[in-house]
Amino acid sequence: MFVKKIAFISLLSFAIVSVAQERNLKNIKKLTFGGDNAEAYFSPDSKNLTLQVTNKQFGVQCDQIYSLDLTQPITDFNNLKLVSTGKGRTTCSYFMPDGKHIIYASTHAANQACPAPPKPKDGKYLWPIYSEFEIYMADNKGQIVKQLTNSPGYDAEAVVSPDGKKIAFTSIRSGDLEIWTMDIDGTNLKQVTSGLGYDGGCFFSHDSKKLVFRSSRPKTAEEIKEYKDLLAENLVAPTNMEIYTCNVDGSDLKQITNLGKANWAPFFHPSDKKIIFSSNHHAVRGYDFQLYMINIDGTGLKQITWESEFNAFPMFSPDGKKLVFSSNRQGAPRETNVFIADWVDTDEAENIQTPNLKKHITYLASDALEGRLVGSKGEKLAATYIEQEFKKLKLKPYNNKYIHPFTYSYRTNPHDTISKGVEIKGHNVMAYIDNGAKNTIVIGAHYDHLGFNEHNNSTKPNSKGEIHNGADDNSSGVAGVLELARLYSQNKRKEKVNLIFALFSGEEDGLIGSKDMAETLKNYFPNVITMINMDMIGRLDDKKSLIVGGTGTSPLFPDLVEKNKPAGFGITQETTGIGPSDHTSFYLKDIPVLFLFTGTHQDYHKPSDDEDKINYYGVTNIVSYVNRLVDAIAEYDKVEFTKTKITSEKKMPKYKVTLGIMPDYTDHGDGLHVDGVTEGRPAQLAGIKEGDVITKIGDCEIKEVYSYMDCLGKINLGDVKEVNFIRNGKPMTVKVTF
């Protein structure tokens, strides 16, 4: 990232727009209307559902089992048909092989009243493990024809194998919550799992050979104690669960997810090669469950739902054409309804591949490329690598060639105003996909970096001669461009726009390469409707903060940026088209721009910006985000360009002093977050550290980066000021000599 312009970033708060981007789901239809409706599962012929309902408006005080005929018009609660007794509490119903009987668990035999739900402990949400639950079979008229379990403690969560031979369920009969199987008539009981923890919510694969289930497996002494203490009270805390698979006999146990938080409600994709499940692993705060798909080897995580804050209990119809799930979309607050949708398997080529991103970043940020300084041997090696990748993908060379040289003069001594400087030859690498469209979108990033700090752009003192590998800045953005080039060249659909993939050099010396391209771009592609720039997308923080610049350069952008964002990400929209990277060159040619940036950090422009610090979860999600943005923008015949202004309060003030920190440019609203501290500068000498939040310098209040700059502008060399900051929630004050 071009350090000399980084102060131009401006920030904008905005209203949240909740719009889905759900490519796998078509013709979504609401099946229930009010109350709490969940765990809907298909009959073998796909014509009926069985589901769990609470609806106090209609006298259903706690969960009861109902069936729903999908062949009839569905308009209101009266379409539901009661299957359970209407007494006690029920859970987890499932059709038997004949489609005429339903199994479910119920407490009605022990107590006909609704058992009270547990209250949270220490703020933790808890699930009850009612010891009164036994598993029953009822006919489609609601008459119980058989009791399948009769043992002390919890027996519930029963499902039937597609071949009609087995029932799997969760039981505490062994002293822990394990998965068991029995024959379809209730005989031949066998324990499947045995690890300490809650194993439950299992489903069979379509070939009836495997089970997929959720599991909380406590590991530390503290976790084990908490689990056992809660279990003694017939409770579990479902806040830390992962997805597992095993054979029906319990062998070949595999942990599929390792995402943290609550991953649950898994179900096999019709191919049995993927698993759909609900997860809140992405959520930074609050309640947010979305559906995800993952390969059975744990790769290829993909978000399926985007709308609302709760999506769970997915089940494919036996023919694989429909998906039923529960969601709080399209309803009143605290209401959950059942939805059905046509399932559409999307092109596998359109899934962002994390291994590809890692391959590109690892090579480009290796010592072999010596920091990719513009004009160096390392830059040429990088250019050759990019060119070869474009050729592998059979992309067309931009203006008849992939590599486009440019020259400029550069003064390595910033105080030298007399000499012409040295002539440097850089190389842009560009290719395109010609879809025969009227409009074109440019997807770009710079690939040059600081080399051995020959041009004095390092933030580490006395670092000449050290390789600055620039993994985040900007191997991360280059990898994103190359992966999108692969996606768009190998997918099975034809986009509504032409696509240019542009990798620039000379960015660190002043956006030289992108300026060179932008000068003549409209001669070849007069209808460029957007330029999207990825610069430093590799260091997503634990709050999942992402800055998207340029949102004011077209009226379309604010809504598109918000509705397509990855789940759990906090987006700071910056309106200005002028920024610290290559999109500026295109904005100045009246082209709408977007700029994606995960923020500065303590390794920014230092030799320590290495590949092992890259957040690949972040890079993968951001590149997928750009994919969605490109597709969304491509739907518009015209993308209006709007000039933006840097308002007076956002202009970079003149100041004579430095604190010696790397600021976080995201507006957190509680002060200036310190991303890094430079050795030997005032902040470090006074004891300020990375992660501190500066709130005041002297009498000058600080809310974000711009008020910080304003405060610095009022300080003179040699001034001593008190600096107030927050560290780990505690206010602190130090004296700083500027």
Descriptive notes:
- The chain is of the alpha+beta class.
- It is built from ten helices and 41 strands.
- The chain has three domains: 36-345, TolB, C-terminal domain (Neuraminidase, 6 Propeller), CATH 2.120.10.30; 355-634, 3-Layer(aba) Sandwich (Aminopeptidase); 661-737, Roll (Pdz3 Domain), CATH 2.30.42.
- Strands 27, 28, 29, 30, 31, 32, 33, 34 and 35 form a nine-stranded mixed beta sheet that branches.
- Helix 2 (354-364) crosses helix 4 and helix 4 (471-490) crosses helix 8.
- The longest helix is centred in the middle third of the chain and has 20 residues, at 471-490.
Keywords:
single chain; 738 residues; alpha+beta; Neuraminidase; Aminopeptidase; Pdz3 Domain; 3 domains; 9-stranded mixed beta sheet; 6-stranded antiparallel beta sheet; 16% helix; elongated; disordered N terminus; hydrolase; PDZ_sf; Probable M28 family aminopeptidase
